[in-house]
Amino acid sequence: MDVTARCVPFLPATEQRERIIMRIAAPGARTSAAASAGRLAVKVPEITALFWVVKILTTGMGETFSDFLVSHLNPGLALGSGAIAFTVALIAQFRTDRYRIWIYWSAVTMVAIFGTMVADALTYLAGLPYLVTTAGCLIVLAVVFVWWHAKEKTLDVHSITTPRRERFYWTMVMTTFVLGTVAGDLTADLLHLGYLGSTVVFAIAIAVPAAAHRWAGLGTVAAFWSAYIITRPLGASITDWLSQSRHDGLNLGTGWISLGATIVIVALLGLLTTRGDRPAAGLRSDAVRPGEADASL
């Protein structure tokens, strides 16, 4: 039996050799090889516990900082400034050749801030009811998922190795942020759960895909995206509860809560930097190769 076949079960020996060679190659060599094949290096972070903590913090900070800007600036100026910063952050992310921690999380943060502005504009400027905006965002989300999978045969974040997949990924991220904002407002206002009640509901909800993945056989990709979508209303409900005066809010102020969340985010990103935060493990044994159907959905 070829010794390489014992390294990762259920894969052909030829692919085993390729994976071993890629693992021992220098990072620069891997990037060069990917570029020569017309692909990108993986540009999203490894999915760890700290990833989820930072993700929830950025969603919450985006919610409160958007509210802070809109209440202290002309709403049109705030929205325009947010659109410019959002565009600059995404351009920087798309132009980088690999996962760079500060560029990636700056883009996520700007998506959180601008996504909140877009959701609030749909509700307060366009006058759309929460049910309509929530249903509309769910439809858009479903369309993006179906389109992405039809084109790429996978929704696995470990396969974000082409420009088109990266565009699908960020479209999905933006849609989940807008959806999460209106869903959080829907539970707090229309369902009268308040911010703390909404926090409890979404905290339970985010545990469901994790439990289903561990004990009920839910696929990795489905579990990831289910949890990812819920991080937005969870983070927003937490910071709204801390900052707002409405409902059951503690009224600590959007500015102070935004500042506090930012300090914690920067500290955690600094910790990830010193620990050598890595891109998503595109060479995992369960990673989906380009062109393969995603069996985990």
Helix content bin: over 70%
Biggest sheet descriptor:
none
Task: Bin the strand percentage.
Answer: under 5%
C-alpha Rg, in Å?
A: 20 Å
Provide a count of the helices.
10
Question: Total strand count, please?
Answer: 0
Q: Let me know the average pLDDT.
A: 83
- Identify low-pLDDT runs: 1-37, 282-297
What overall geometry do the principal axes of the alpha carbons give?
globular
Element order, helices and strands?
Answer: HHHHHHHHHH
Give me a quick take on this structure.
The protein has 297 residues and is an all-alpha fold.
Describe this structure in words.
It is a single chain. By secondary structure, the chain is mainly alpha-helical. The chain contains ten helices and no strands. Helix 3 packs antiparallel against helix 4, helix 7 packs across helix 9 and helix 9 runs antiparallel to helix 10. The longest helix is centred in the middle third of the chain and has 28 residues. The chain starts with 12 loop residues before the first helix and ends in a 22-residue tail after the last helix.
What is the topology?
Layout: H1 13-24, H2 27-36, H3 49-72, H4 75-95, H5 101-125, H6 130-152, H7 163-190, H8 194-215, H9 220-243, H10 254-275
Helix pairs in contact: 3-4, 3-5, 3-9, 3-10, 4-5, 5-7, 6-7, 7-8, 7-9, 8-9, 9-10
Features:
10 helices, globular, disordered C terminus, single chain, disordered N terminus, mainly alpha, 297 residues
